Structure formats: C-alpha cells, structure tokens
Amino acid sequence: MKDNKRLSTEVQTIYSLRRFKNARDPNFVEALKIYTRTITPEAHTNTNEITYWLDRGYGEFGDEFCVFGFFKEDRVVGFAQLAYFRGERILFFDYLVLSKDERAHGEYYAFAGQLQKWVDASGLEIDYVVAEVSYDCGGSTPS
Fold it and tell me: CA–CA separation, 10 vs 75, rounded Å?
C-alpha cells in the first residue's frame, strides 16, 4: 500500500502597503496607471497634480500628502491617496482603487486593513475622517 501523505491545503498570499516617497519610486507609475484606468475622467485629479504634490509635499503647512501602492506579492494592484490636515485634525481619503482583476478575493478588505494599520501607526491626531464618494455622470450609485 502506498504511503498516503496529506497534501498541503494552505495557500498564502502576501499583501503589503507602501507609501511612495516621490514620483521617481519605481512602482509609482504602475500604481498611477491603475488609478487612471479605474477612476472616470469626470472624477479624477490630473496626474500631473498628484505627481507635483507627491514631490513637493504639504510639509511647509505641517500637513501630509500620502500616495500608496498596494502590492499582492511583488505586483502593484492598487492605489490610494490621502491628505492629513494637521490644524483641523482631518484625515481625507481621496482615492482607494484596485485594478479590476484584483477585486474578487477580499483584496479590498486587505487593502483597507493595511491602510488602517498605517493610520494607527502614524501617530496622527485625528478628529475627523472624510472620504469622497463619486458618482458617474448621471449615475444613481457610486462608481
């Protein structure tokens, strides 16, 4: 009789979140492509503005402008952008998007969980969290 070894039933996927320091980050362009493919032209910010503020920052105001890439293994699969206004103690989530191929296995929750961990570890003093919810032109549900 053959030795019946149990096959491993464990499959592991590694998700990670990385804040881009500047527009020269090698993965920034890939994340920005996901953003431009996902957000409708009516609702998206010009990518030149995102690049400008990522490189310049809000430092002189004491505020933070953050752009993140969400990774599945070593592939960029998402983009997030937020701003923190220190004087008002407001955290503003502007964009949180995943590539269309990465929306079926709970990746959104993994991405949101990673962002929550980052916010918790950031030490930001927050009174309000705000998010923009956009609708497609003439749409009755969020895009």
Answer: 21
Does the CA dihedral 47-51-56-60 come out positive or negative? positive
99 and 60 Cβ atoms separated by less than 8 Å = no
Q: How far does CA 128 lie from the centroid of its chain?
A: 19
Chain segment 17-31, per-residue pLDDT in tens: 999 999 999 899 999
Per-residue pLDDT of 85-105, as tens digits, reads: 999 999 999 888 888 887 777
The tokens 């549900």 sit on which residue?
141
Number of alpha helices (DSSP H) and beta strands (DSSP E) in the chain: 3, 5
- pLDDT tens digits, residue range 108-137? 888 989 999 999 999 999 999 998 776 666
- Sign of the torsion angle spanned by Cα atoms 29, 35, 41, 46: negative
3-state secondary structure of 52: helix
pLDDT bracket for residue 59 (50, 70, 90): low
CB atoms within 10 A of CB 80: 24
| 3-state SS class at 84 | strand
